[in-house]
Amino acid sequence: MLRQTMQRFSRYFWRRRYRKQFQALRTTGEIRRILDQERHRSDRNGHALSLLVFPFEDTEDALGKHCHFLHLLLRRVRCYDVAGWYDHSHIVVILPYTSAQGARKVAEDLAQQMAPVYDPLPYTVYSYPEDWLDSHHIPSSQERAGLESAAKNRLTGPVVPADSVFSPGKRQNGAGSPSFFIPLPMQRRMKMKPAADPSDLFVERLPVWKRGVDVVCALAALVVLSPILVAVAAAVKWTSPGPVFFVQERTGHNCRRFKMYKFRTMVDGAQGMLDKVWHLNEMNGPLIKIEKDPRLTPIGYWLRKTSLDELPQLVNVLKGDMTLIGPRALSPLPSQYQRWQLYRFKVVPGLACAWQAERRGDVDFNEWMRSDVKYVRNISLWNDFRLLVRTFLGVVLCRGGR
């Protein structure tokens, strides 16, 4: 009886003050920008970064409960923590310098403070980069041992049915719906989107315009260049024994591994000869680049110089594994990169990249990674067109291909 009386009073009280509570929250767009900045700081400094996600439920006491929760939340977070909307039915709290265990303690403190009046809200903890790598990347045998403990970092609060936590369907705009008591101007500012996995906040989706350009251009290029593709395939087959295509696992979007296709430019079994030629490597970092690699076939050096060996990657573009312009898909595993270099995997890898267009032949791996990170921060149609033209000129003039 006392609990019901307190709930009625809470609903009445918070109906008068809900605007102040909700207006203190950041919008979805602001949350994404702030999270991007905090990810950069985390990558540079190596400190922990966690997210707390709370779903808003459709219940009769939603208004008072949610406003009471926000009142407690805004009192509990630190000056550099940020709370805002993940989407129209989820609140996300960005907790810099906080491990998964620390984030769970914040959620449990909030639950204890809510307990006298309301049942605690369910929550989920996401830690970066452990959950990001573990959730979106299929690890190799070498990585599995290091990532087994990462699964323990994903912590979940009170258990609720899955469809009530992440329901992509439309909600009724009634008394129990969050959109009922969020001011309409704020709803317009929020640009609410359907619910999705919060760990996707660390990932940049491929723009629709870019995917459309990829499909049209890749199909046109395969048709127009089909005589060249056939001629190169025949030349590869006649000049050296072995398969025409070289298929290798590369690290792509969101650290996922995929199979990339190229015309074979080296002798069959060249991967097994890495130890014998590693002393000739001209590039620092986990990559190997040798201008006059002894493993190259008679036609392989010319194919690399003209970049014709890259043409089969148009198939990867059609499949969606790659795009025309983006960071190069490289063979090293995510564990071989520094934290700040993982930012390049936020976008889909490309057939051509900024490094290939502007620094083609440069052997400094860190400068290559900086070039990729700069590109990711400044993606635009004009920038892609500019890089595509510069790449084409570099290929035609055979500048520095390795």
Oligomeric assembly: single chain
Q: What characterizes the major β-sheet?
A: 4 strands, antiparallel
Structural domains: how many: 2
Instruction: Kindly report the CATH topology of the largest domain.
Output: Alpha-Beta Plaits
Average pLDDT level: 77
Q: Helical stretch count?
A: 17
Query: Beta-strand level of the residues, as a percent range?
Result: 5-15%
| CATH architect. name of the largest domain | 2-Layer Sandwich
Calculate Rg over CA atoms. 26 Å
Percent helix: 40-55%
Query: Could you give the order of the helices and strands?
Result: HHEHEEHEHHHHHHHEEHHHEEHHH
| CATH class placement of the largest domain | Alpha Beta
CATH superfamily of the largest domain: Reverse transcriptase/Diguanylate cyclase domain
Low-confidence stretches: 135-155, 158-195
How does the helix and strand content classify structurally? Answer: alpha+beta
Distance between termini?
77 Å
Largest sheet, order of strands side by side? 2-3-1-4
Number of strands: 8
Q: How would you sum up this structure in a few lines?
A:
With 402 residues, this protein is an alpha+beta fold.
Task: Tell me what the structure shows.
With 402 residues, the protein is of the alpha+beta class. The protein folds into two domains: 2-201, Reverse transcriptase/Diguanylate cyclase domain (Alpha-Beta Plaits), CATH 3.30.70.270; 208-396, no CATH class. The chain has 17 helices and eight strands. It has helices at 2-23, 28-45, 62-76, 100-114, 130-136, 141-147, 162-165, 178-181, 184-190, 208-224, 226-239, 274-277, 300-306, 313-319, 354-358, 365-377, 381-396; strands at residues 49-55, 82-87, 90-96, 124-128, 245-251, 257-263, 323-325, 350-352. The protein has a four-stranded antiparallel beta sheet with strand order 2-3-1-4, sandwiched between helices. Mean pLDDT is 77; it is low at 135-155 and 158-195.
